[in-house]
Each structure stands twice: as C-alpha cells, then as structure tokens.
Amino acid sequence: MTMLIYKDKSKPIEERVEHLIGLMTIEEKVGQLVQPFGWQVYEHTDGELSLHHDFKQQVQNGGVGSLYGVLRADPWTGVTLENGLSAKQGAKAVNLIQRYAVEHSRLGIPILIGEECSHGHMAIDGTVFPVPLSIGSTWNVDLYRDMCRAVASETRAQGGAVTYSPVLDVVRDPRWGRTEECFAEDPYLIGEFAVAAVEGLQGESLLSEHSVAATLKHFAGYGSSEGGRNAGPVHMGWRELLEVDLYPFQKAVEAGAQSVMPAYNEIDGVPCTVNAELLDDILRQAWGFDGVIITDCGAIEMLASGHDVAEDGSDAAVQAIRTGIDMEMSGEMFGSHLAEAVRVGKLETSVLDRAVRRVLTLKFRLGLFDKPYVDAERAEQVIGQAEHIRLARQLATEGIVLLKNVDGTLPLPKTSKRIAVIGPNADQVYNQLGDYTSPQPRSRVITVLDGIRGKLGKDQVSVLYAPGCRIKGESREGFGNALACAAEADTVVMVVGGSSARDFGEGTIDLKTGASKVSDHDWNDMECGEGIDRMTLGLAGVQLQLMQEVYRLGKELVVVYMNGRPIAEPWVEQHAHAIVEAWYPGQEGGHAIADILFGDVNPSGRLTLSIPKHVGQLPVYYNGKRSRGKRYLEDDSEPCYPFGYGLSYTTFSYERLTLSTNSIRADESVTVTVDVTNTGEREGAEVVQLYISDTVSLVTRPIRELKGFCKVVLKPGETRTVEFVVGSDKLQYIGRDLQPVVEAGRFSIQVGRHSKDTLCAELIVREDE
Predict the structure, then answer these.
(1) What is the dihedral sign for C-alpha 607, 613, 615, 618?
(2) In the chain, what is the greatest distance between 2 CA atoms, to the nearest angstrom?
(3) GO molecular-function annotation terms (predicted)?
(4) Could you list the active site residues?
C-alpha cells in the first residue's frame, strides 16, 4: 500500500501540507482554525480519564485544530489540586486526546495543544517562576533564556506544543493591571528579553522534546491604553508605534517566533484583530513572518459587540480571516460561521486555505504528525525538578530591587535580635505568585516568613508574626496583635503591597492569629492582574495606616513590597529605614527575599519601570520627549526612583568613558568603553547601562534611550573595562517618511548606573563624503 504523501516524513513540509489540504473538506479546514477550551473536553474522576461525548463528535464531524489550556488549572477553569491532573496524569490526558483525534478523524490530523506559560507552565506541579516584571528587573537575559528552556521542557513533557508567551507590551501607564506580565517601559530592554524568550522556548529545533512554539503578544500598543484601562483605545501615531511598541515584536520575529497574538485594543480607530497594516503590511510583508496569527479569547466576537465594526458574528469572522487571522482562541465565531460563508460565496476558498496552510505548517514543524504522543513517565521526572526550583530562586533573588537603605540598615545581622514579620503578604502563598498561576500545595511555596525562619533557625532568634490587615478592606482587628509583636521586636519587617491572587478557595486569614480560615464571605484581595486596573498607585486598604502605627513604636522599619505594579507612597519613602521591591517573586520568593535581607546575596536588581512620587505625575517613563514640560504646580515631574535605579551593599564608580573615535559616518561604528570599579568591601553585581541622545533632529526625539546594558560581577577593589559597540542600529530613528534614518549631527553617549546618573561623551556623525 502506497503511503499518503502528507504522512511521509521524508517529504518536504510544504509538499505534505499541500497534499493534505487537497484532501480536506470545508468542515475539516474550518476545524483546523478553531481552538476550544481544552479543560472542557475530558473528565477526571477517581484517577480515571475519559473524553466528553461532544468533543468526540466534534473530532468525527470535521476535527479540532487546537485546544487551549488542556492542562491549565485555576479558578476560571475550575481545575483544583483535588480534581486536577498531576504531571504524569496531564501527559496521559494529552495522549488520550491526541490518540482519539488521530484514530477517529478521517485524516488523522493531530491537535495543537496551546498552554499559558508567562512565568511557568500554568499547570499543576509546574514550577512557578517570578513574574516578567521581576524577570526584567534582573537585567539578566541569559538567566531568562535558561528559564524559558525549563518552561518549554516542562510544557512539552506533558504534550503542550505552543505557549502564549512572551508578553512584549511596553508599559506606559502602570495603573494597568497587566503591568506585572510585562518586562519594562523600555522597548530596547524588552527586545533583548524577547529574543531570549524565542531562543529559550523554541530551542535549536521545534522537533525537540524541550521546545515549544512561542506566541508573541499582544500585537500591538496594548500597554498604552487610554487611562491604563485594559483593552482601552490607544492613541498613537505610526512613528511612535514603529519605534516603541513594535520594536520588541520585530526583534522576536527576526529571532524566529512561530506565532503572534493581536491585541484586543484599537489603534487610531482600527481594532488590532482586523488591522491589515499591522498584520499584513508590517508583520508579514515587511518582517517576513510566516507563522500563525491567533486571536486572544473572544476577540472576534468583540468586533461585533464592543468595537462595533462588524454587523454580526459572520461579518466579524470573515473580516478577521481576510485580514490575516489564522486561528481563533475559543473558536466560536470561526466554528459557527466560516463554513457557511464559503458556501454562500461570502468567503473565498483561497482565503480559508491560506489560514489552514499556516496552521498545518506549524504542526509539521513541531513534528506532531510524526510524534503526536509523549512519555508520561518522563513528564513526572522533568516537571518541577530541583534544577528548575534553583533557577526560580536565582531569578527571584536577582529581580529584587533595593530602593532605600539608610545607614546600612540592611543587611540584617544574624544575631539574637527579635524580628517581627508583619503584613498581609508575609505568609500568604498566592499573594506572591502573580496572575496566571496554577493551584499550589502549601509545601511548594516559600513565603517571607518561611524564608526568615529558615534563615535564622529556631535557636538563634525569635521571629514574631502577625498579618495585621488584609490587602484590601478597612478592618483593623489585626492591628492590636501586630503592634504587640512589633513592640517586642528590635526590627520590624513589613511585607505589604498587592495581590493578583484569584479565588483559589483557600479562604482568608485570621487577622488576630495569622492562621488561615474559611471566610464567611466572598473575600478577594486581588488588586492587580488582568482586568484589575486602578485609579491610584497607593497601598490599598489600611496597610499604610498599619505601617504608620508600627513606626510610632520607634523600631527599625524594613519595608518589603510584594506587588505587580509600582507603589507610590511618599510616607513610606520618607520614614522607612529600608525599602525592598520584590515584585511577585514566585514559589521561591521567601528564600530569595531572606537571602537579600540577611546579606547572603548582594542585591543586583534594577528598576525597569520609573516609580512616580504620585499617580498624578503619570506618565513618567524615562524616555519621554524633551518637549514634555517641566513641572506641576505642586511638584516637579521627576520620578521618585528613575528607570535603571537600584542599590547594592557595595559601591561602584565609573571612570574614563572613552570613544574609539569621536567622529563616524552613518554606516560606521564606534567602540565605547568605561571603567567600572567596585569601591566597596564586598562582591557585587552592577548593571552598566548605555544611553544615547540625538541632540538635534528633524523630528522630536526622547531625552535619552537605552541602547545597551551589561551585568558584571566585581570583587572588592576590582575594575572591569566594559565595552559597547555603537553603530547605525543604535543611532537610527524612524524619520518623516516612516523609514529608519541615521541623521548627521551630534549624539550624546551616556554610560552609568541608571538613567539619571551617567558619564557623557560626544559623538559626531558626519555627512556622507
């Protein structure tokens, strides 16, 4: 019997795809473009797995191209630690799904399993790494690449083949609830992490059992929404869009990313889901992207009910696929309307085939036709392994930013002093994990209280604990116990901030005893995360009032912020002896914070978001225009802490900023060197930052722009010469014709500790001779 061409792995992918498309019915083609919710297709009862009848019927009637979140576990899916799938069971579930699709559909096309992996695979047993905002604060691209390899390995081990990450949005308004999912306010820095994500997730080959296809999101402008409201309109010109928001996506596409997800928002009145200039002119034509474009959940329906640019679901589906959408997450609009649209002549078969071709090509690139199943035993070995946990701790430690340290308050001595650990985030597991997190056994997550107790040991010091209050709400019933603990202590560590924890059914906390208890009302402390946007950047609830009462006791006050967006609290800045920004540090966060507090690790994190003095200063991003204005009536426009800022337990000096030449042509480059010396008494890591300013230009330019960085570890007294190469890629901008240009003239080359502390040298770019 002759083997069908599409099943012959010796044939080129393009030939296999075209042969398969030629065999498919309209229903089978549409089936490849839909992505139902994966957790709804199986039943897990008493350890036994079975498939739902509706899913079986869908497979037999035309097929299912993809499933979203087969392994996703959280309150939305209703998958818990009790009814969910372990690492081994998850792999078995995916195998069961794939086997049915391969053996019971007419053509045996395997299913593409897509999973959420923003900071770890969002499945039970998956390692929970710090959120991207914390990862960005490490300024350690190599370490993040290693993390992405770990995440890809854990995901692929269970059969997940595509991840809906990395998030490459440029944050312009931190009131936005999804700030925690982003790396920075700076496109260059995000671009470096974007490339590392693609390299780490996809590896050297998509066929590898350690690789998944990366999906870049949200394309584009999502972090610049009106008022910081999720999915709100974006008011942005094409020059800014090209220079800022599209830059990280372009870098990731050039690195080989296989999938892109358009954003929910509109730009200048055109929803990204049907923006042909974005999806075709730029992404496919200009950048050469040849992968799959998949919508965000419900985005096509939003065209007819929300954006109101389509008459109904059928019109929305046709508009979307014609513009370039290949697959719909949730699948309802494509699944309901595309086949009929083709039959009545509303949609050309060639347009349908184009989308199917892209989806099938990705499946072949991933090797799903030739190896659709995974080894369940291996999944158990790979997922949550010790090396991944060690990596999570290192990332959390390097992402912690020391903001303030009066008279060497930190590191704390490991002596017989009493320490009071107070605050709603001191011992609340889910409050340190961030959004897009699966349920966790208590034993897997190290809280700050756990970390401090483990660091000091039972016999060395008395560690007192009281939550004091919740993140939200006005209850002060815990104040008395918290103040009593603080009164007995020499040092108070206040662990406050925010929470992106959805309702995991863990109840609440007893403010008098600190013990977990089942709540008598639907309590939720969530004040950050997707769809949770704020009007202010202050501490919610009565957290500030609790701190103020503790401060009146005259104790040494160390504040640890654990949160998903910057906090603007002038009182804390003025009165705390030390301030540590930990963001959401993941499952090893307690260990990492204790490592920093007691000096076992020297802090090296640096801010990737400017922290304002007051929410009324927004926007405060460092690379604003020179023409942005000087000050307000009440205060200047400078941030409380600038982009790139962070303290260390040692000190560094910068000397001898040198250019290899002070004059170049536009097509030449210059080598920039600077000597960095550790002038303190202990080893430390410094993030050396390169900024460039085009001093005179035909269009207005930012005050300065990050164009390079390097994290160096120096022993006491050690000097390192750090080198950067500056060429046209770092000097160019988008000109009046919306094309990249390097203008002749003067440039300021700036190198230093952060955006407000640099040495400067002048570079001349000459006219072409």
Answers:
(1) negative
(2) 87
(3) beta-glucosidase activity
(4) 296
Mean pLDDT by 10 residues, the chain (769 residues): 87 98 97 97 93 96 95 94 95 98 97 98 98 98 98 98 98 97 98 98 97 98 96 96 98 98 97 98 98 97 96 98 97 95 98 98 98 97 98 98 98 89 97 96 97 83 94 97 97 97 71 54 82 97 98 98 98 98 98 98 98 95 87 90 98 98 96 98 98 95 97 98 97 95 97 98 90
Cα dihedral 238/242/243/244 (nearest 10): 90
- Do residues 168 and 262 lie in contact, with contact meaning Cβ atoms separated by under 8 Å? no
Q: Is the pTM of the predicted complex or chain greater than 0.90?
A: yes
466-500 pLDDT, tens digit each: 999 999 999 999 999 999 999 999 999 999 999 99
> Tokens for 510?
């007893």
CA–chain centroid gap for 142, Å, is 16
Sorted by where each starts, the structural domains of the chain and their CATH numbers stand as 19-381 (3.20.20.300), 400-628 (3.40.50.1700), 652-766 (2.60.40.10)
211/198 Cα distance (integer angstroms): 10
Q: How far is CA 588 from CA 410, 502, 584, 768, in A?
A: 21, 20, 10, 55
Q: Is the distance from CB of 160 to CB of 111 less than 8 angstroms?
A: no
What is the rounded CA–CA span in Å between residue 154 and residue 122? 10
Average pLDDT along the chain: 95
Task: Using only the alpha carbons of the chain, give its radius of gyration.
Answer: 27
DSSP 276-304: HIIIIIIIIIIT---SEEBPPTTHHHHHH
Please, which residues have CB within 8 angstroms of residue 57's CB and are 6 or more apart in sequence?
A: none
Q: What's the Cα-to-Cα distance from 508 to each of 427, 503, 515, rounded to whole Å?
A: 12, 10, 9
Q: What is the pLDDT of residues 603-647, one digit of tens each?
A: 999 999 999 999 999 999 999 998 877 788 888 889 999 999 999
Sequence-distant (6+) residues with CB within 8 A of 646 are: 137, 401, 402, 403, 603, 604, 605, 606, 607, 687, 754
The label of the residue with tokens 């790139």 reads: 644
